[in-house]
């Protein structure tokens, strides 16, 4: 009973739980915007990677003939993002790229940074999903006389989605947890709200555990939803 | 119906097909035999441009496959293909496997296409599987569906790429029976196969391929009983006297 009083002191007094609620809103908001941006960027980059665009087809040099600038750009993007820590990307965006925009809200910078970050991973997930399919599927479709676009739409993409969705959800779970680094650029997210409560109450453990549980509940909901979707898709397999 | 002249195909430095010239007439059943790596499958896959030939010419019903202006999709509508690993569409029912391509490409109404699909399923003896998914079928059944799928486009020639090589021994006969029936109906067929019995009894002509060329092109009777080339003899010896 004593301990309940302590908890009340930490979270209820001075309406400190509001920090957590605001932090929660920030974290979920950034994750949502970043996820949408990430999927859009990811699809775009994946399309670029599987594209068949060879502007120098007629060149004499074999390397130049096979050069696909769209693919090159997409590879550069994914390698750059996947090869550097998200914190570095976030700091570069906030302190260098948008250094001149003092009024730009942290929320926007964070969403943009995580969206760009997530896009690279989503690209790889989509590409792996499409390229991981049996080559025979495309061949069979083409051999029946279907144009590439029809074969993609009717045969490849419906099958690839089944492989892509589970990986995509786990990417969003990672994204949600990764947003906890926005404290570096002054964003007040879930984790940062715990720090604020600690600084006011001198209690370090409880706020951390509290936000940990909230993260766990959110990712748990995600996972549960995903299992349902997966089950639904297995029926036609 | 099919005219092939000086066909070459190479991957980098590796020449897989070397100077193949051959004519195939309407209604003929051709069995293509030979050791693995001799270019049989590549030859077959050049005929609907799943492989791009390096040089040479292929004419199918007067249309030049090597001409960039030729719509390859139109040619493929007319040239069916059956694969070693069936390649049915796992996310579609058996019926949808048959109707999808005609529905998307041909200007026919749905009822007509489905009626035809049921007729073809009946023909391969699998009418009751119309609403099953491919993974609920045995290998032999899958391959019969794959043949029906090719037939649904009303092709004038069908290419078979080792259609029985991935099947359990028990299931080979049911697929060969369907092919035999097709041959009797006068379908033009080019069959890459290791089934020598089938080649002997059904084919009008047998191509023996070795190292990227058609070494011998004669009637099954001559190939199996009195081959001209030492290499053919050697191959048949190995295959038939197991």
Explained architecture:
The complex is a heterodimer of chains A (237) and B (242). With 237 residues, chain A is mainly α. Chain A has 10 helices and no strands. Chain A has one domain (2-236): MetI-like fold. Helices cover 77% and strands 0% of the residues of chain A. In chain A, 32% of the residues are buried. In chain B, the strands form 2 sheets. Chain B has a 6-stranded mixed beta sheet with strand order 6-7-8-3-9-10, sandwiched between helices. Chain B has a 4-stranded antiparallel beta sheet with strand order 2-1-4-5, with no helix packed on it. In chain B, β9 and β10 form a beta hairpin. In chain B, α5 (139-151) packs parallel to α6. Chain B starts with a strand and ends with a helix. The chains are: A mainly alpha (237), B alpha/beta (242). Chain A binds chain B through residues 134, 136-137, 139-147, 150, 154-155, 158-159, 162, 236-237, and chain B through 48, 50, 73-81, 83, 85, 87-91, 100-101, 104-105, 133, 135, 149-150, 153.
């Amino acid at each position: 009973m004593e301990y309940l009083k302590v908890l009340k002191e930490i979270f209820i007094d001075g309406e400190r739980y509001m920090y957590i609620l605001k932090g929660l809103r920030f974290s979920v908001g950034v994750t949502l915007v970043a996820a949408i941006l990430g999927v859009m960027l990811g699809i775009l980059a994946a399309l670029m990677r599987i594209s068949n665009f060879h502007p120098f087809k007629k060149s004499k040099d074999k390397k130049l003939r096979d050069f696909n600038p769209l693919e090159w750009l997409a590879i550069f993007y994914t390698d750059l993002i996947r090869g550097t820590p998200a914190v570095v990307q976030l700091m570069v965006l906030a302190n260098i790229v948008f250094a001149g925009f003092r009024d730009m809200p942290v929320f926007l910078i964070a969403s943009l940074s995580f969206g760009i970050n997530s896009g690279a991973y989503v690209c790889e997930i989509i590409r792996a999903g499409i390229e991981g399919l049996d080559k025979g599927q495309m061949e069979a479709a083409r051999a029946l006389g279907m144009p590439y676009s029809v074969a993609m739409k009717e045969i490849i993409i419906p099958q690839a989605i089944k492989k892509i969705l589970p990986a995509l959800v786990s990417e969003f779970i990672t994204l949600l947890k990764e947003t906890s680094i926005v404290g570096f650029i002054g964003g007040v997210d879930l984790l940062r709200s715990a720090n604020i409560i600690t600084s006011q109450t001198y209690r370090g453990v409880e706020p951390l555990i509290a936000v940990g549980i909230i993260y766990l509940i959110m990712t748990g909901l995600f996972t549960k939803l995903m299992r349902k979707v997966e089950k639904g898709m297995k029926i036609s397999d | 119906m099919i005219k092939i002249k000086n066909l070459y195909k190479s991957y980098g430095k590796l020449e897989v097909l070397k100077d193949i010239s051959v004519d195939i007439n309407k209604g003929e059943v051709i069995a293509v035999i030979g050791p693995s790596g001799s270019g049989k499958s590549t030859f077959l896959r050049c005929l609907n441009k799943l492989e791009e030939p390096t040089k040479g010419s292929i004419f199918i019903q007067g249309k030049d496959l090597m001409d960039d202006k030729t719509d390859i999709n139109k040619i493929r509508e007319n040239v069916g293909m059956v694969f070693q690993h069936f390649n049915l569409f796992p996310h579609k029912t058996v019926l949808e496997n048959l109707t999808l391509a005609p529905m998307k490409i041909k200007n026919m109404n749905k009822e007509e296409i489905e009626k035809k699909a049921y007729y073809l399923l009946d023909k391969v003896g699998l009418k009751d599987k119309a609403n099953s998914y491919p993974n609920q079928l045995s290998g032999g059944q899958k391959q019969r569906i794959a043949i029906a799928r090719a037939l649904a486009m009303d092709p004038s020639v069908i290419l078979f790429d080792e259609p029985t090589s991935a099947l359990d021994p028990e299931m080979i006969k049911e697929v060969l029976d369907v092919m035999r029936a097709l041959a009797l109906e006068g379908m033009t067929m080019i069959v890459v196969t290791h089934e020598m019995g089938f080649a002997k009894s059904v084919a009008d002509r047998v191509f023996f391929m070795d190292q990227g060329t058609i070494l011998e092109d004669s009637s099954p009777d001559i190939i199996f009983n009195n081959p001209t080339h030492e290499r053919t003899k050697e191959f048949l010896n190995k295959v038939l006297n197991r």
